[in-house]
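Appendix C reproduces, verbatim, an entry submitted by the partner laboratory led by Prof. M.T., so that reviewers can inspect both the input and the predicted structure.
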Amino acid sequence: MAGSRLETVGSIFSRTRDLIRAGVLKEKPLWFDIYNAFPPLREPVFRRPRLRYGKAKSPIQDIFYPEDQIRAKFYSAYGSGQKAFDLFNPNFKSTCQRFVEKYMELQKLGETDEERLFAETGKALLAEGVILRRVGEARTEQGGSPVSRKSEPVAISPQTVLEENQPQEEVPQDEHAGTPKEPSKGL
C-alpha cells in the first residue's frame, strides 16, 4: 500500500498528536510527553530546498597546501610524465612527489626565490637520475637547442605531396612550341 506522502506536511509531533486524537495510535510514544513539555524553539518542519540559480556558493572552504602550488607548477611545466603510477607497490613515489619532496628539502636549506628553487630542484633530480622533460620538447635536438613541436613548420600541403609522388612523364619538345626558346648560356 502506497503511503499518502503526508510526512512532508507538519512536524512529527503534530502528525503523532493527530493520530492519537483520531484513535489510530492507542499508546503515546515515550517521547511525546517530553516533546509536549519542552518543545523546540523552531518546530522541525520539512521544507523543500530552494533551487539555486547561478553559481552555487560552497559553504565548505577549499583546502590548499603549499605542496599543491608546487604540484600545479610541476604539471604545467613537465606534464604528467611517461611513467604510470604503480598502485600495487605501497612504496611507489611518483615523479611529482619526488619533485615536491626535493623542493621542500631545498626550501628548508634557505632558498627563497621560487623560480630558482624550481630550476635547482630539477637539476637535483637529474643528478639523482630522474629525467624530466618539459611539455612540448622534442626528443631530438637540432643545433644544440631543443626544438618545440609547436614551432616546427607545417608548410606542406597535401597537393604538393601528391605531385611529388606522381611519376614524371617525359614531355616532347613539340608541345612547348608555344613558348619561346631562350638560348642556353654556356656552362
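The chain is about 35% helix and 5% strand. Additional entries are available on request from the coordinating office.
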